[in-house]
Amino acid sequence: MANILELTDVVKTYQTTKAVDHVSFSMPRGSIFGMLGPNGAGKTSLIRIITRITQADTGTVLINGMPLNDDHPEDIGYMPEERGLYKKMKVGDHLIYLARLKGLSEKNAKESIKHWMEKFDISDWWNKKVEELSKGMQQKVQFIATVVHKPSLIILDEPFSGLDPINANLIKDEIDNLRSEGASIIFSTHRMEQVEEICERIVLINRGQNVLEGGVKDIKQDRKKNLFRYQIEGELPPGVLDGKEVIDRSPESLIMRFTQERDSNLFLKSLVDAGAYVQGFEEILPSLNEIFIQTVQEQGMTIEEPLNTPS
Fold it and tell me: How many domains does the chain have?
C-alpha cells in the first residue's frame, strides 16, 4: 500500500524548546493512523507542520510522494483540539464560509453542508448562532467543517473531547465511513484506549521523539507476555495447577503464564478433562498505554504528563 504521508527527520524548535526532535514515520494511504502521546509530547507541533501552519526547521514531509507545498492544505481537513468557530456567526453561514476557503463554490458548499447536517440530524441548526450551541453540538459543526470539502487527508486532534457516548459513537462511525470511501485519517490523542478501537497503525510520540511505530496488532503481539485468563465456575479440580505458573487467582478467574503459547490450549484441555466448567478463555494482550510506558522506560526517557487523563 502506497503512503499518503511520509516524514523524515523532521525538527521544529521554539526558542530553546525542541518540540519535534528528528521524527520519522510513514502513513499508508486509506488507513486510520493514530498519533499518540501525552499532552505536550509534540503531536500538535507535527500537525501544524503537516498542515503548513508552521514550517519544519529541517527534515522533509511528503504527501503522495510530493514535497509539502502551498497546494496541499486544500486537500487536508484539520479539526484542531482548540475549536476555531466564530461564536456570533450563524451555523450555516459559518460552514459556507469555511467551505469556500477550501475552494468549494457556494452551490457545492451548500449541497455538501446540507448533506452532512441531514446525516447528523441537525438541519434545524442552520440559523442558530454558534454561541447558542453546547460544546458537543459545536463539535459536530467543527467536524462538518473539517470534511465538507472531501479532503483525502483528514487530521482529527482529540475529536471526541466534549462528546457524550452516543455522539462519540456517531463520529466514530463517520470516521470509518470516510475511510471506506478512500480518505486517510490521522487521529491525534492522549487517550490510548480510544485508539485501540479504531486505528490500524500508530506512532507513539514522547518529548518530541518517535518512540514506537507500527501496526496496532503487530505491536501488541510483539509485546505480549504469554498471559491467559480462564473463567471457571466452581472449584478447581485437585492437582490441576501443579507445576504451573499462576499469576492471579480469584473465585471466578485464573490468570496463567506459559513458556509456549500452545501450552495454554493443553492446560484448557486438562481443565475440561478434569471436569472443570470453563466459561471463558482468552489471551491477555498488553494495552497501548502499558506498551507506551514500557517503551519509554526502556529508552531511559520520562513521561511529562500521565496518559488517559480526561480532556
Answer: 2
Residues 248 and 188 in one domain: no
Model confidence over 256-305: pLDDT tens digits? Answer: 999 988 999 999 999 999 888 999 999 999 988 888 888 878 776 666 55
State the pTM of this model: 0.84
Are residues 235 and 204 part of one domain? no
Same domain, 239 and 207: no
Residue with cell 496488532: 217
**Same domain for 235 and 213:** no
Domain harbouring 246, CATH code: 3.30.70
Rounded Cα gap, residues 207 and 62, in angstroms: 23
3-state secondary structure of 28: strand
